[in-house]
Amino acid sequence: MSLGYAEKLSYIEDVGKVGMAEFFESPRILQEKVGQLANMIRKSKHMVVFTGAGISTSCGIPDFRGPKGIWTLQRDGKALPKAALPFNRAMPSITHMALVELEKASILKFVISQNVDGLHIRSGIPREKLAELHGDSFLEVCSSCGVEYVRDFEIETIGLKETPRRCSDTSCGARLRDTVLDWEDALPRKEMDAAEKHCKMADLILCLGTSLQIKPACNLPLKCLRGGGKIVIVNLQETPKDKKASLVIHGLVDKVIAGVMESLILHVPPFVRIDLFQIFLSQAVSSDKRYMNWNLKVESVHGNRAPLPFVKSVEVSFVDRQDLKAAVLDKQPFVLKRRFVRIVEPFELVLKINFIDACRCRYAQIKIPVNFKVSRKCPQYDKEAIYQNLREAAVQDSRCGQYEVIQRKANLSPKYDITVYAIVTNIATYDKAVAKASSEGVVCNGDAKIKSESLMCNSSETDNKPLRFLKRKHRLTHSPKTANKQLRLLQPKSRL
């Protein structure tokens, strides 16, 4: 979990058992149990997965109760672990992406998560097939109309408090609230109802990386037993529900799930992270009518009060305009202002947007023609098709940095231009990790060759070369649309 999240929680003395011993099955027993689990999944008609912090430790997010968990270290008076990377840049694990593939294959029917890291939504689990019992550090909701907003930054508060932003629906405009629970907060009724419904329907509930201690969430898997369902627990520590389970596997969750996917002959899909930012250009006559003011902003799509967490700095230069001085913007908000004594003639602007170290893409170089004398056409963009094309290109090229325009708005009076860009900033592939698990005898067929030592993240090596702009046709590819239309991945009507 996020260290920031742990610090925001109200203090309570009793957080349950911590620092519990970890157990590891022998390679032979682990292989047998993975085979049993794969067979149970094959026979299942309604499988539900119940996840805890253990599925995210391989993402660089520490758990709470393990030997090096946050609460364990606090109890022992030891320093808390340092985050391997910013919380908002955590990448989904093998397990996260395997669940995405199982859902697409209609094997997995529903996911119940106690985690607040947002990695299930980020990995691609449909919102209507996910119950986040304790909330999501990257999700805020309108307190009036219920619209949800997924952000690329960690929400500032927890405890269902109001945030600095408002609903972008012009007919609403109510204040937004965070969704993460504090200790005294009740579990959200909507999430609990969906979780209970699917647990009662389930013939198999797979509990992954959870100590099953926090009530009432830990009792949800038991609801399948009355209808003849079975419980499988994959966790390194013993849990209070082990005796109720048909199968208990003490092993690393990623290793177990990699073995299951190999046995089921299913591919763990790559994860491609696409981030959004917008460029705002404006021009206006000064109040005394003597000057022409020109402004540039590189900002978040989530509103003018929102941070742009993946951008480190912006270098601004002008093509064939010696009278316009270049600039480096190294502090947020990234704003450049210029004042002219005459009408600004058309010119070309070059932006080199430098990303933080946690991004596999180091920079993007974008050329922008600036001409407020003519009206720019603002076509309708098929965002889903663009996202799909970007993902396919990133996987095919095994690199990051591809970008496309996904939205544009221009106006002549007052003069402004807003362009939203989508860029691939991270990519992770998992085939080599799955093959490694197979080579170690985790799966039954065990005939895959070793490909790599660990999960691989590919990145562009062209540090000094501008990243290429994709000029693909926006052909519509198959992309199932979420049935939950209350979920919005960005705020298109950001207030500037």
UniProtKB/TrEMBL annotation:
Its main location: nucleus. Zn(2+) binds at residues 142, 145, 167, 172. The keyword Zinc applies. One of its GO terms (molecular function) is metal ion binding. It is found in: Nucleus. Its EC number is 2.3.1.286. Keywords: Metal-binding, NAD, Nucleus, Transferase, Zinc. It catalyses: N(6)-acetyl-L-lysyl-[protein] + NAD(+) + H2O = 2''-O-acetyl-ADP-D-ribose + nicotinamide + L-lysyl-[protein]. InterPro entries: DHS-like_NAD/FAD-binding_dom, NAD-dep_sirtuin_deacylases, Sirtuin, Ssirtuin_cat_dom. The active site is at residue 134. It is an enzyme of class 2 (transferase). GO terms for cellular component: nucleus. One of its GO terms (biological process) is negative regulation of transcription by RNA polymerase II. Its cofactor is Zn(2+). Residues 27-267 form the Deacetylase sirtuin-type domain. PANTHER family: NAD-DEPENDENT PROTEIN DEACYLASE SIRTUIN-5, MITOCHONDRIAL-RELATED, NAD-DEPENDENT PROTEIN DEACYLASE SIRTUIN-6. Belongs to the sirtuin family. Class IV subfamily. This is NAD-dependent protein deacetylase SRT1. It comes from Chenopodium quinoa (Quinoa). The gene is LOC110735512.
